[in-house]
Amino acid sequence: MKLLITGASGLLGINLAMEAMREHEVVGVDRGKLKSAPFQVLKADILKTNEINSILDSTNPNWLINCAALANLEKCEEDPTQARILNTELPGELATACAKRNIQFVHVSTDSVFDGTKEGIYTEEDEPSPPGVYSQTKLDGERAVEQADPRAIIARVNFYGWSLGAKRSLGEFFVNNLSEGKKVNGFTDVIFCPMLVNDTARLLLEMLKKNLSGLYHVVGPQAMNKYQFGMEVARTFGLSESLISPKSVLSSELTAKRSHNLWLSIHKLSTDLGREIPSFSTGLIEFYTQFQQGYPQKIRGYQH
Ligand SMILES: NC(=O)c1ccc[n+]([C@@H]2O[C@H](COP(=O)([O-])OP(=O)(O)OC[C@H]3O[C@@H](n4cnc5c(N)ncnc54)[C@H](OP(=O)(O)O)[C@@H]3O)[C@@H](O)[C@H]2O)c1
Question: Which of 122, 148, 153, 282 could form a disulfide with 106 if both were Cys (CB 3.0 to 4.6 A apart)?
């Protein structure tokens, strides 16, 4: 199959390209960060009028996974207009263009469409209640996609992994700081379901192969708070757990509101794929193995 990835330089984009190229023809769309990547890269500004249509016509993919977004919560609060353009309007336009050409489209959404006030687990049936600009614009993106292309997959994700800039994920945050002997805080009151980004990528590809469509939670099977996540990373990498202090997110300098409970059910996903979702510990061991094998340096070498 031929897969087009928009936002190929991002944390998900680059890892998805690396996973997909094992089996598929990959074309990554990027606005200029990538060089010498082991897959085809198309330099383009996807926000330019008609650019999407001309990219789809010239590449003619079977699948499109959009990984471009304004995914920094603080930046979204600072620039809601840009957040809306990237997180709502762009996915809507991509879905429209894909529906016209019979291209299977994947919209990558977020676990944080929920405000976290529910006690217990969120299913796809629960009504979202976004707590800020990022989550609101992502939810509006889901709705724009649903309307334009009911066949599209909408995947609410949460992942960590190695990124081009070495700073994009929470996993990298703990590894980088603890490796330098720096003290860090781990939030005890933010519960989430982290998944290794390579597992996320492989699941998205499997969902496409199985011809799934509609809304899915695509997160890890184990809920934990961010402090516990940091402790697990420290243990696996043989780094000092005592450098991590348990703290409340309310004591942090982060300005955008965070949901306290993002425990999402993956029952629908595992049922429709007919298999278990990779465990947290399997993903974390792969994250460490990648580190030992020089994967972070390898992907960083693909940028200008
Ligand atoms: N990280 C997580 O745990 C997480 C959690 C929930 C949902 N998500 C969702 O997962 C998706 C991927 O997230 P990520 O963490 O991989 O994000 P990321 O690392 O910040 O990557 C974002 C991508 O979007 C591109 N982009 C940003 N502004 C652009 C613009 N004006 N024109 C074209 N491209 C632009 C970036 O290109 P440049 O490199 O050129 O800036 C980059 O390739 C997003 O939809 C995000 O909302 C992520």
Answer: 153
CB 166 within 8 A of CB 296: yes
110: enclosing H helix or E strand: strand 104-110
Residue nearest to atom 4 of ligand 1 (CA): 158
What's the CA-to-centroid distance between 78 and ligand 1, angstroms? 16
CA distance 216 to 145: 14
Q: Which helix (H) or strand (E) holds 142?
A: helix 133-148
Report d(CA 31, CA 46) in Å as an integer. Answer: 8
- What token pair was written down for 101? 């050409």
d(CA 182, CA 194): 23
Phi, psi of 264 (to 5 degrees): -110, 140
Q: Closest ligand 1 atom, CA of 111? A: 6
CA nearest ligand 1 atom 47, residue: 71
Pocket of ligand 1, beta carbon within 6 A: 7, 9-13, 31, 33, 46-47, 67-71, 86, 108, 110-111, 138, 157-159, 163, 168
CA nearest to 268, candidates 226, 220, 218 = 218
State percent of the chain over pLDDT 70.
100
Question: How confident is the model over 178-223, as pLDDT tens digits?
Answer: 999 999 999 999 999 999 999 999 999 999 999 999 999 999 999 9
Tell me the C-alpha distance between 199 and 249, whole Å: 27
